[in-house]
Amino acid sequence: MTKLRTFLSFLVLLLVPLSIVGQDISDTLEIFAKLHDMDMGDEEGQDDSLEVIDLPSWHSHHSNKNLINVEGFGAVGDGAADNTQAFTDAWKQACSTPKSVFLVPEGRRYLVNATRFRGPCVDKIVIQIDGTIVAPDDPNSWDPNNPRTWLVFNNLTKVYFQGKGVIDGSGTKWWAASCKKNKSNPCKSAPTALTIDSSSAVRVKGITVQNGQQMNFVIGRSDSVRVIDVKVSAPEDSPNTDGIHITESTNVVLQNCKIGTGDDCISIVNASSNIKMKNIFCGPGHGISIGSLGKDNTTGIVESVVVDKAFLRGTTNGLRIKTWQGGSGYVRAVRCQDVRMEDVTNPIIIDQFYCDSPKSCQNQTSAVNVTQIMYRNITGTSRSQKAMKFACSDTIPCTHIILNNINLQRSDGTVETYCNSAAGIGYGYINPSAECLSSSDKDANIVQPNAQHTVHTEL
User: Fold this and answer.
1) Is the N end or the C end of the chain the one with fewer CB atoms within 10 Å?
2) Does pLDDT of 50 surpass 60?
3) Alpha-carbon dihedral 13, 14, 18, 21, rounded to 10 degrees
4) Is the pLDDT confidence value at 48 over 50?
5) 62 catalytic per annotation
6) Contact (CB, 8 A) for 286 and 265
7) Strand-by-strand arrangement of the 317-323 sheet
8) Averaged confidence pLDDT in the chain
């Protein structure tokens, strides 16, 4: 803390000559200190919310775990036979048995239809996925009672997913039927491959989720979730296949994950807070996104988000906040640091005019408030001229944007920063220059777009 105070005093000396007219320096420094102190917290192995579970040797006769093998309930891992009932029966047994391990054996492919694995269970449970769980590939034969989900784990406490296995959504035909692939197709939703819902004290380690019919992995309405060493993949041209999607959840840590999809690698939406990401590889995809928020005049709230060490390669966006006109609520207390970009189209972007719609979006004055956003030690290459874009609402400007040590280059030309109604400060090396950030909302140097606001659709 002493070092931080010394640094802040030095920062005051840097800021005073800049004549920050109308801005309360002490408020800015207080915000800076708050963002600076946000850290990853519990490292792997230090999370008290979930006891680390010692897994048994499958051949040990002395294990104190109860092994529930899906093949003991009739599952046939040939990739063709329907194993839904076997998985359901095995789950009922595992959930009602203390110290149980729900095992999907390696070396086999188990076809399973849409299924909900419900809790609460009598004790903490290990879900050991070593084989492959595969979804039916024909949208026309999908269970109409589960149009938005495939594998759902619901209402669980102290659950540990782990293994070297694969959850495969078989999404090829779903993607081909999407209106984003072919405008003549009707716009319909598709299932999420893996959903963890209304659960707490969850660990997910080592598994692969791939080829989601739509989103690959959703964490919803949950608390204290750690995702470690997980791989998520789908083709670059697969529509709406977000890698890890976080909604209405708190205290989520994503660590050492490799994600490449056709949409956001990570997306964080309404009612989510204390989200921490460390050592993330993203690409292909649309980057690490907060939002979208505020669609159809709704309220969106996201706060306390940390991205610490990430590498993004060939993505359409890098670090993005996206909100619709007409929304309300806020995004605040976000810190992104030690991020490397390689050939990213929009490395840093805040877009309050987001419009992922076939029709033009109506201009509206209300907006989700975006404030207290720090970008620190961000380097790499931009595919576009505008390496930083702060496209904010004229009536609800973005405030307290803090830039520190930014170095974004372009291999075939210069880069620049675009600002509309965005206020903040920069210190250290800043390239491209961010002088267009106003020192306060009152004396903002606003860059006006065309008569109609620029519409930013999904990339």
Assistant:
1) N
2) no
3) -60
4) no
5) no
6) yes
7) 115-118, 149-154, 192-197, 217-220, 244-247, 266-268, 288-293, 317-323, 346-351, 386-391, 416-420
8) 88
CB 438 within 8 A of CB 422: yes
Catalytic: which of 130, 197, 223, 263?
Answer: 263
Q: Is 446 left (phi over 0), alpha (psi -120 to 50) or beta?
A: beta
- Considering just the CA atoms, what is the radius of gyration of the chain in Å? 23
Residue 325 in contact with residue 361, Cβ under 8 Å? yes
Say which amino acid occupies 258. K
Residue 147's SS3 state is: coil
Rounded to 5 degrees, φ, ψ at 344 are: -100, 135
d(CA 291, CA 312): 18
State pLDDT tens for residues 20-36.
334 445 666 677 677 76
Model pLDDT for residues 137-157, shown as the tens digit of each residue: 999 989 899 999 999 999 999
Q: Is 353 helix (H, G, I), strand (E, B) or coil?
A: coil
Residue from 245, 286, 400, 453 carrying the catalytic annotation:
286
Write b or e for each residue in 157-175: b if 16 or more Cβ atoms lie within 10 A of its Cβ, otherwise e: bbbbbbbebbbbbbbeebb
| Coil vs helix vs strand at 298 | coil
Return d(Cα 151, Cα 169) in angstroms, integer: 9
Confidence of residue 62 (pLDDT cuts 50, 70, 90): very low
DSSP E strand boundaries for 269-385: 272-282, 288-293, 299-313, 317-323, 328-344, 346-351, 369-382
Residues counted in the chain: 459
Residue 59 is among the residues annotated as catalytic for this protein:
no
Cα 304 from Cα 40, distance rounded (Å): 11
pLDDT given at position 18: 38
Peptide bond into 170 cis (omega under 30): no
Residue 365 pLDDT > 70, yes or no? Answer: yes
Q: What is the pLDDT of residues 223-282, one digit of tens each?
A: 999 999 999 999 999 999 999 999 999 999 999 999 999 999 999 999 999 999 999 999
- Identify the pLDDT of residue 122: 96
Report helix, strand or coil for 174: helix
